[in-house]
Each structure stands twice: as C-alpha cells, then as structure tokens.
C-alpha cells in the first residue's frame, strides 16, 4: 500500500500477522501525530510551548523582575532604551505510549475484522508515526491473562519489538474465563509508569467502564495528552432485524436472537450509554475521543484528527 491509500484487508479477519503490521509503515509515516499540549521534559525533537532557557531563540520581550540577567538581550535594550530579555523555546521529545486491549470482547466482529485486529492496526500506525517523528515508543499490551509492558525507546527496533508482542499467539488465543479486573488494573499500572509529557493512546472497546477508569484517566490527563480510540462492531450499535444469527466470537460461533423489542432497545441503550460516557470523558482537558468501527479504515480515522505530513 502507499501512504495515501487505505489499510488493506488482513489475511484473516480474526488474527493479525507481523508482516501486515510492518506493511503499514508508509501509512504510519504519513501521519503527523502531534500532541494536544506540549509538556514533555527531556531534550529531543519537539518544540515546547513552555518558555525558558533552551536551544532555540523565540523572541525578545520587556524585562520583568526575576528574569535571569544572563538572558538579557543587550542589542534590543540598546536600540529601545528599555531592558529586554531573550526567550527561548526548548527542543523536546516525548514518549508515545500505547495501551492496547486484547481481551476476549475485542475478539469479535460481524463486519470487517475483529475489533482487536483494528486496534492492532491502529497501534502499528501510531508506532510508525512515532518512529518517523523521532519519539520514544512504549506500550502496555494486555489480554484476559497476558500483560506485557514495554519501556519507551527510540527507533525502528522499538516499533518492531512492540509489533512482535502484539502478534504473539498468547494474545490471540486467550482463555474464555475472563479476568474482570484486567482493564482497570492495566490502566492503574499505566498511571504509575507513564512519565509526564507523554502522548498516550488507549485502544479498546471500553466495555465495563467503572469509576476507577475515570479516576485513572483524570490522573493521566493531568500531565499527558490522552487519545481514547473506541473500537466497535456495527451490531453493537444496533441489532440486525429480528431473527436468529450466528456470529464469530473468538474461535467460537455464537447464536443470538434479536426478536424481542424490549431487548433490542435495552441493547442499543447500553451502547449509547457507553458512547456517552466516553464523550463525557473526552471533555476533560487533554483528552480526545476517536471512534473506529470494525468496517472502518483506521488510517482514515487517525488522519481525520491528526494533520498529515
């Protein structure tokens, strides 16, 4: 595929392969995934809005009590007759952190590919964009039983390391006895390992949201930029016409009955409630919401929000 093209179909709608994620490199490099707020604290390739002593001159402004005399702009002071000081913009880099949910509910689709496959593709696009931007890439990938943390590192090897973990068979053939606390526990762990100034992508269907999720999200958003990427299948929005259907869930075929009007309304209301909760969370400063259906192109979803190169 080329950088401007759509993400191609995978070899299997229920599984992602490493070669497929590597092929997304040009598409990821075409994205310019910038921070909502620049807060990073270490030297690198991004310019900070935080004014201070740094490596690149920004402007001169009138001297204010408390300014460092070493930053005095003597030329402007002599020309204007009033004391002026230099202001610099420091070069910054930032960690880009991917929090990827591969639990059992993500192994589901009636159209397109599994939610987990779309999430993996999105993770790859963000990873390749981070490499192209010169950002450090890290992540936390979890399923009902597996939990892998990757410390932020620079370069192509960091992206390949992450993509190999995502494609590990252990994440795609989990046990069906789900660990209900997996998502809150993983997000709590992220609040402990994500450094201030990070750009964080939470990739999930966000089922079973609770008060702890909001608390951890607020904690992350205080010092980092957070993108909630919500994955869903069309049948989760609205059940198909009344009848009996078979859908693929993990490695199993499951029968569902969509005949009852009350059940149909309750089903739709649950989805709308979850979407409304996410929209509310996205109103926090430093938080934004993106939505990607199992039949959507994740590159288009990202490029609609983030400016291209």
Topology:
Layout: H1 18-22, H2 25-29, E1 42-52, E2 56-62, H3 74-80, E3 84-93, E4 95-101, E5 108-109, H4 115-133, E6 136-142, E7 147-153, H5 156-166, H6 169-172, H7 182-193, E8 199-204, H8 211-223, E9 225-232, H9 234-237, E10 244-249, E11 252-257, H10 261-281, E12 287-293, H11 298-305
Parallel strand pairs: 4-6, 4-8, 8-9, 9-12
Antiparallel strand pairs: 1-3, 2-3, 5-10, 6-7, 10-11
In short:
This protein is an alpha/beta fold. The chain has helices at 18-22, 25-29, 74-80, 115-133, 156-166, 169-172, 182-193, 211-223, 234-237, 261-281, 298-305, and strands spanning 42-52, 56-62, 84-93, 95-101, 108-109, 136-142, 147-153, 199-204, 225-232, 244-249, 252-257, 287-293. Residues 37-43, 47-55 and 177-181 have low confidence and may be disordered.
Descriptive report:
This protein has 309 residues and is of the alpha/beta class. The chain has two domains: 18-39 and 95-304, von Willebrand factor, type A domain (Rossmann fold), CATH 3.40.50; 43-92, no CATH class. Helix content is 35%, strand content 27%. The chain is built from eleven helices and twelve strands. It is elongated. Mean pLDDT is 82; it is low at 37-43, 47-55 and 177-181.
Number of helices: 11
Instruction: Quote the distance from N terminus to C terminus.
Output: 17 Å
Structural domains: how many: 2
- Categorize the overall geometry: elongated
Helix content: 25-40%
Let me know the largest β-sheet. 6 strands, mixed
CATH A-level architecture of the largest domain? 3-Layer(aba) Sandwich
CATH superfamily of the largest domain: von Willebrand factor, type A domain
């Amino acid at each position: 595929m080329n950088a401007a093209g759509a993400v191609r179909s995978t070899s299997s709608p229920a599984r992602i392969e490493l070669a497929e994620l590597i092929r997304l490199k040009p598409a990821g490099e075409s994205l310019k995934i910038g921070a909502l707020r620049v807060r990073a604290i270490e030297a690198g390739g991004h310019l900070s809005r935080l004014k201070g002593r740094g490596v690149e001159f920004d402007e001169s402004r009138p001297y204010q009590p408390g300014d460092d005399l070493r930053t005095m702009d003597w030329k402007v002071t002599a020309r204007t007759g009033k004391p002026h000081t230099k202001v610099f913009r420091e070069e910054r880099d930032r960690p880009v952190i991917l929090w990827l949910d591969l639990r059992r509910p993500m192994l589901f689709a009636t159209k397109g590919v599994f939610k987990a496959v779309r999430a993996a593709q999105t993770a790859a696009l963000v990873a390749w964009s981070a490499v192209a931007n010169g950002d450090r890439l890290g992540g936390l990938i979890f399923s009902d039983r597996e939990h892998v943390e990757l410390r932020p590192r620079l370069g192509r090897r960091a992206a390949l390391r992450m993509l190999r973990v995502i494609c590990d068979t252990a994440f795609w053939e989990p046990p069906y006895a789900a660990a209900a606390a997996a998502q809150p526990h993983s997000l709590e762990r992220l609040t402990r390992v994500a450094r201030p100034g990070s750009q964080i992508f939470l990739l999930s269907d966000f089922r079973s949201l609770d008060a702890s999720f909001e608390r951890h999200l607020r904690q992350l958003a205080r010092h980092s930029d957070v993108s909630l990427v919500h994955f869903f299948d069309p049948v989760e929005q609205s059940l198909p016409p009344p009848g009996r259907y078979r859908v693929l869930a993990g490695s199993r075929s499951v029968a569902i009955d969509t005949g009852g009007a009350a059940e149909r309304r309750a089903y739709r209301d649950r989805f709308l409630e979850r979407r409304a909760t996410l929209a509310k969370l996205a109103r926090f400063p430093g938080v934004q919401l993106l939505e990607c259906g199992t039949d959507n192109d994740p590159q288009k979803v990202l490029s609609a929000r983030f400016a291209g190169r």
